Amino acid sequence: MIKKGFLHIGLFFLYLLSLLPLAVLHFFARLLYYPLYHIIGYRRKVVRENVQKSFPEKSFEEIIRIEKSFYKYLADLIFEIIKLNTISESELRKRVKFNGLSQIEAYFSKGESVLACTGHYGNWELCMLALGLNLSATEYVIYKPLASEVFEKWFQKLRTRFGNEFVPMRQTLRKVIATKDQPTMFCFAADQTPVKEETQYTLQWLNQPTAVLLGLEKIALQTNRPIFYFDVIKVKRGYYEVDCLLLCEEPKATEGHEITDLLYEFLNKTIQREPPFWLWSHRRWKFVV
């Protein structure tokens, strides 16, 4: 009970902090970078190992450059997510631009639904929030609930401010069935790690065997809905562009795991373009496969 009380006080402080302009929050982010990387060394061992294994061809100096750039991005990401508490619709539209959404709207206009996917790249939270403002149909984002009830409610409030709905991963099929008579978009995070005991497929990705989730492919094969990939591009600090790319038009015409392979191929291109902006602190390779 006492712990929950402190958490609520902390979240209220974050709300007050979010009232500041993002330029000020970015200043705080740069201050945070130094202890985050140089003093605390938050998950630095995990980051170093992930980057080195993913880019074995790069020199140690290049690895360190990616590592430091990642921590600067991570500090920015923390404060940009805090800003989601109070960011206005006009500012959100200004900071996130979408290219190619007319492809998706063409399906909605016919009363049809689509599937979409992206990775933990750039500010995916900001981009998903902005996407809700730019679609005529409801966006359902598939996610893994947090262990903390307090933080789970806090994130839910942030993420759904502009019409999005978040669906726990294990309830995906139920929600797809419940909304089958209306145009929708279900969006999946491509790069989450499955539970070891439930791993059904692995592929070679970022130069190492990688266990992957098959949720997107399973839903796609059951519904035959077209799949779009959101390619996030960091334009400058606090500003993003998202290219809407057709990944697969007719899932039932694909062969086994072709959709999943293609998805990770797209994500690989995104990461290779600018490596620092992927979530390297995530324990993506938790077990040997």
What is this structure's SSE topology?
Layout: H1 2-18, H2 22-39, H3 44-54, H4 60-83, H5 89-95, E1 96-99, H6 102-109, E2 114-118, H7 124-134, E3 138-143, H8 149-159, E4 165-168, H9 172-178, E5 184-189, E6 202-205, E7 208-211, H10 215-223, E8 227-236, E9 239-248, H11 258-273
Parallel strand pairs: 1-9, 2-5, 2-8, 3-4, 3-5
Antiparallel strand pairs: 6-7, 8-9
Describe the structure using short key phrases.
alpha/beta; 9 strands; 289 residues; two-stranded antiparallel sheet; 7-stranded mixed β-sheet
Can you walk me through this structure?
This protein is an alpha/beta fold and 289 residues long. The chain has eleven helices and nine strands. The termini are far apart.
Name the strands of the widest sheet in spatial order: 1-9-8-2-5-3-4
Would you count the extended β strands for me?
9
Mean pLDDT: 94
Rounded to the nearest angstrom, the distance between the terminal CA atoms is 41 Å
Structural class: alpha/beta
Main sheet, how many strands, which sense, barrel? 7 strands, mixed
**Helix tally?**
11
Tell me the series of helices and strands, N- to C-terminal: HHHHHEHEHEHEHEEEHEEH
Q: Shape, please?
A: globular
Short description:
Helices cover 48% and strands 18% of the residues.
